[in-house]
């Protein structure tokens, strides 16, 4: 089990994501900001290319296309599957800056069977 929001957790999640199908055009540089956690704010980023997760690291991405900011509780509920990420976005619980069109183009992936399985697999290796 990897502690949520650590580099170990990001590394394990990247390994799990290796089985995701290629999705031409699903490329983005995403910065995540989780605010108000017990250890303060956490920042991590993903670099996706054609649906493949190339990088998943703690820290700041120098040139993100999209930045998603959410509070710790909502982020945890999304990770646990208790709060739908799309619904949280539509309710304004996930703040987005940057290229909104790029983010919206990627949202349908979150409804795919492969992505839902990846979420379940990630939850199984996550310690909160």
Topology:
Layout: E1 2-3, H1 7-17, E2 28-37, E3 40-49, E4 52-58, E5 66-71, H2 72-79, H3 85-90, E6 95-98, H4 100-106, H5 113-124, E7 126-127
Parallel strand pairs: 1-7, 2-5
Antiparallel strand pairs: 2-3, 3-4, 5-6
In total, the number of domains comes to: 1
| CATH-level-4 superfamily name | SCP2 sterol-binding domain
Low-confidence regions: none
Series of H and E elements: EHEEEEHHEHHE
- Give the N-terminus to C-terminus distance in angstroms: 10 Å
CATH topology: Nonspecific Lipid-transfer Protein, Chain A
Gross morphology:
globular
CATH architecture annotation name: 2-Layer Sandwich
Total helical elements:
5
Structural class: alpha/beta
Helix content class: 25-40%
Strand content: 25-35%
Rg, Cα atoms, Å = 14 Å
Number of strands: 7
Largest sheet: 5 strands, mixed
pLDDT averaged residue by residue: 95
* CATH secondary-structure class: Alpha Beta
Quick recap of the structure?
This protein is α/β, with parallel strands linked by helices and 128 residues long. The protein has one domain (2-127): 2-Layer Sandwich (Nonspecific Lipid-transfer Protein, Chain A), CATH 3.30.1050.10.
Any overview of this molecule?
With 128 residues, the protein is an alpha/beta fold. It has a single domain (2-127), classed as SCP2 sterol-binding domain (Nonspecific Lipid-transfer Protein, Chain A), CATH 3.30.1050. The protein contains 5 helices and 7 strands, in the order E-H-E-E-E-E-H-H-E-H-H-E. The strands form 2 sheets. Strands 4-3-2-5-6 form a 5-stranded mixed sheet. Strands 1-7 form a two-stranded parallel sheet. A hairpin with a 2-residue loop joins strand 2 (28-37) and strand 3. The radius of gyration is 14 Å and the shape is globular.
């Amino acid at each position: 089990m990897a502690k949520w929001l650590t580099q170990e957790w990001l590394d394990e999640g990247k390994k799990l994501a290796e089985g995701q199908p290629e999705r031409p055009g699903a490329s983005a540089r995403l910065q995540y900001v989780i605010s108000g956690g017990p250890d303060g704010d956490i920042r991590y980023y993903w670099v996706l290319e054609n649906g493949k997760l190339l990088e998943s690291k703690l820290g700041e991405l120098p040139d993100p296309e999209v930045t998603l900011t959410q509070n710790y509780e909502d982020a945890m509920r999304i990770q646990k599957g208790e709060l739908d990420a799309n619904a949280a976005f539509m309710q304004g619980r996930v703040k987005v800056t940057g290229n909104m069109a790029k983010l919206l183009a990627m949202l349908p992936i979150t409804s795919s069977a492969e992505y839902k399985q990846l979420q379940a697999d990630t939850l199984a290796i996550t310690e909160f």
